[in-house]
Write a structure and sequence with these properties.
The protein contains seven helices and six strands; from the N terminus they run E-E-H-E-E-H-H-H-E-H-E-H-H. By secondary structure, it is an alpha/beta fold. A six-stranded mixed sheet has the order 2-1-3-4-5-6. Helix 1 crosses helix 4. The longest helix is centred in the middle third of the chain and has 17 residues.
Length: 177
């Protein structure tokens, strides 16, 4: 099946896109997110039994804000999502923490398994391992780090326009389409 696609919370494609976007808005509202500046998640892909949130980093590091004052709103009421809830704010993975909580809540509303992907350069692997150690994961809730190399290899052959774009921004292309 073709997935529902949302970009920064807005419906892009898919017959169920508005339903998924409504669930995301409801969760964001419940968490007290500013409705005029919702920035998470970057990308959502949803199928009938799975929802995937993707935190996209082109060539930057993960957002690190140890002790940010908003950590409690993402952790305190959802402590069961975290293996070490009291260590989350100290670790400082602000965007990943927001995405993990939001994704888990949206998945629960929709009755789907969820996966949060930290997409970026291989250098994010260390961060991903540290963040992963803070999480409670299982069959219905997973976190993964994927590199651009892996995604482009899996997508090969890529469309010519995409191959040209990723070369332009300096990402590797496994194979041209």
């Amino acid at each position: 099946d073709e997935p529902v696609v949302l970009a920064w919370g807005h419906s892009v494609t898919g017959s169920d896109a508005d339903h998924v976007a409504d669930a995301l808005r409801a969760v964001s509202r419940d968490l007290g997110e500013n409705p005029r500046s919702r920035s998470e998640p970057d990308i959502v892909l949803a199928w009938s039994s799975l929802i995937v949130f993707v935190e996209v980093k082109l060539d930057s590091a993960n957002d690190m804000q140890p002790g940010h004052t908003s950590f409690p709103k993402y952790v305190d009421q959802d402590r069961d999502l975290y293996a070490a809830p009291d260590a989350v704010a100290t670790a400082g993975f602000y965007e990943l923490t927001r995405n993990w909580t939001i994704a888990a809540r949206v998945a629960a509303i929709l009755g789907r398994a969820m996966l949060l992907i930290n997409l970026g350069l291989a250098a994010l692997g260390h961060d991903a391992n540290v963040f992963s150690s803070l999480l409670v994961q299982g069959d219905r809730r997973r976190f993964a780090h994927r590199t651009w190399d892996e995604v482009l290899e899996d997508a090969a052959p890529v469309a010519p326009w995409l191959a040209a774009y990723v070369r332009c921004v300096g990402l590797p292309v496994a194979r041209d389409g």
